[in-house]
């Protein structure tokens, strides 16, 4: 552990099982990482399936650890959630994404939105909406360029609170997507009441196409259309999947077939070329 005079977190073995040591290390290195700018945002473009045009980019965080190399968010976001460190990290992510989007605007890139993943703890903060609005104000980004991705499980929790927050965000023209759709247990009547813009179909349903399992995927796309929501297919890797998605009238795709997540330096030339 570092002797940096800051709060140390004690993590009990029975909470985390055998990965306890690793989680402990991640937590202790975390403060340093925020200070030393070891976090980076990569961006993955989303394309219109028919025109091939880029319609948005999703920000995906990476931790460039000094000794462990690049650590996946799948590993450290859950730890950040458990310890509460997601709050300062989440604000950092939002601010960085807004600043980056502003730069692309100054470079003449119009229309596209930047999508930011929001974790459960972050969304449930009482002042979540105020935090988002103050970051927009501070960075000077027009709210119409910002999209927030909240998972289906966040959206299905604490109904009234979720509706209240989403309504405030929508009033400011911030775009709202439900991430990993199809993996939670959405009540459809409940979904209908949410002021949202878009569903992102979980990649497991896209991969199902390869095994002839596309009934759920097709139903989700139909459902989105019936509710007048935009729909993004995630994790599109093959032409065959893209073809099927077009047949199902899915409008937007994201995946390695089109673009991998890339560092911010590489994105601007891509945005300029289209
Ligand atoms: P997610 O939001 O569902 O992000 C999609 C994940 O799929 C990303 O993994 C992306 O790199 C990956 N992906 C994109 N295209 C393809 C493809 O064609 N095939 C396959 N197999 N995978 C593809 P990544 O970047 O490792 O992120 C994993 C998860 O970590 C994200 O899942 C999200 O839940 C979380 N995460 C990432 N960045 C952030 C962040 O800034 N904030 C928060 N709260 N969570 C984040
Ligand atoms: Ca996402
Ligand atoms: Ca997702
Ligand atoms: Ca996911």
Automatic annotation (TrEMBL):
Keywords: Membrane, Transmembrane, Transmembrane helix
Record domain EAL: where: 23-274
Source taxon at top rank: Bacteria
Protein name: EAL domain-containing protein
Species this protein is from: Lysinibacillus antri
Lineage: Bacteria, Bacillati, Bacillota, Bacilli, Bacillales
């Amino acid at each position: 552990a570092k002797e940096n005079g800051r709060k140390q977190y004690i993590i009990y073995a029975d909470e985390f099982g055998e990965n306890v040591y690793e989680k402990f290390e991640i937590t202790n290195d975390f403060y340093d990482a925020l200070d030393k700018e070891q976090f980076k945002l990569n961006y993955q473009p989303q394309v219109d399936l028919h025109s091939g045009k880029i319609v948005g980019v999703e920000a995906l965080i990476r931790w460039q650890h000094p000794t462990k190399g690049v650590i996946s968010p799948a590993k450290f976001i859950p730890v950040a959630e458990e310890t509460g460190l997601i709050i300062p990290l989440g604000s950092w992510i939002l601010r960085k994404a807004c600043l980056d989007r502003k730069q692309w605007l100054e470079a003449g890139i119009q229309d596209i939105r930047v999508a930011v993943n929001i974790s459960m703890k972050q969304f449930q903060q009482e002042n979540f909406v105020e935090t988002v609005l103050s970051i927009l104000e501070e960075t000077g980004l027009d709210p119409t360029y910002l999209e927030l991705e909240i998972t289906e499980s966040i959206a299905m929790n604490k109904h009234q609170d979720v509706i209240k927050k989403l309504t405030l965000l929508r009033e400011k023209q911030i775009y709202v997507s439900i991430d990993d759709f199809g993996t939670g247990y959405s009540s459809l009547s409940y979904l209908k009441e949410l002021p949202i813009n878009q569903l992102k179909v979980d990649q497991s349903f896209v991969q199902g196409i390869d095994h002839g399992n596309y009934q759920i995927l097709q139903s989700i796309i139909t459902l989105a259309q019936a509710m007048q929501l935009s729909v993004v297919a995630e994790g599109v890797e093959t032409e065959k999947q893209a073809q099927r998605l077009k047949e199902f009238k899915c409008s937007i795709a994201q995946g390695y077939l089109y673009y991998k997540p890339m560092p911010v330096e590489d994105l601007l030339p891509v945005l300029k070329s289209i």
